[in-house]
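Ticket opened by: R.M.
Priority: normal
Category: complex prediction / small molecule

The reporter submitted a protein together with magnesium ion and asked that the result be attached to this ticket for the collaborator who will pick it up next week. Submitted input follows.
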Amino acid sequence: MTINRRDFITLGAAGIGSTVLSGAVPLCAAETCNGMPNLSLPSQPAELHIGCHQTLVAGKSFEEKLDFLESAGYDRMEVSGGNYEWMTKNVEAFSKAIKGRKIRYSNLCIGQRGNAGMADATERRAVIDTGKIVLDHAAALKAEGMILCPARKKIELPFPELRERFLSEIVPELAAHAAKLGVNVILEPLNRTETMFLRQVADGASICRDANRPGIGVMGDFWHMTFEETSDMGAFISAGSFLKHVHIASRKNRKIPGLDGEADVYIDGFKGLKLLGYRGAISIEAGYPKDTSDEEKKKLLIKAAELIKTQWAKA
Ligand code: MG
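Result attached by the on-call engineer:
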């Protein structure tokens, strides 16, 4: 489908989004756009996969949590709940719980030891050694990979050296291990209060580009993006094919999406995901208001999935 100039004007900004959604090939033919970029949809259209951290789901077992998520319209669960040692103790239970189900594990959000930003080489080595353990578990669970925040809080190395050492010491070994297993190391940009090293999706993508090897990607977390990015859509587009995962939370208080009312708008970011043909998870990483009952938690997760679906359709 090609849009002529009159259609283009009639559609307006909202219409452009829905045209992208509908699977049109060129958004605007070059000859009718006065030289403006001719945005084409990817040959593989985006797919919506809604996920949630397992720790946010009420239930006594992983089975019970997976049952609930499936019934609530989720098709991904994010593996979380402890560090790499906790993961080693629980990998069999996770594996048993997912057998025979349509829902899948998205990623492992599991703490590694060490800090890539420290001057002490044993700190940097620990990121590799414990990261490999988590990657092994990610592969065993047929997840897409593990999330890595390279250097947070205390950073001793000057930034140029940190980036160089991260790229030359840590990424080659971790990414090679991930690629061998068919999974990814997924860099997560955080807020400036957590790390000044990696705050923006584009910066994570540029690390992936410089690494120039399989087994490494970047993610975007709407919570961090709210404060660190100038454009949700621009941030996602800048990641391109390096984008492997998305976190989502309410945009004022980092609660379940929808709890911050009118602030919880993700449509601009979803447009970016659609333009990329993104097929990874959009996974809730957030909290609940104090003293939320298990029944209320379930209701909030059902509503959040509905909100994500509605805004995805509008994007
Ligand atoms: Mg996050």
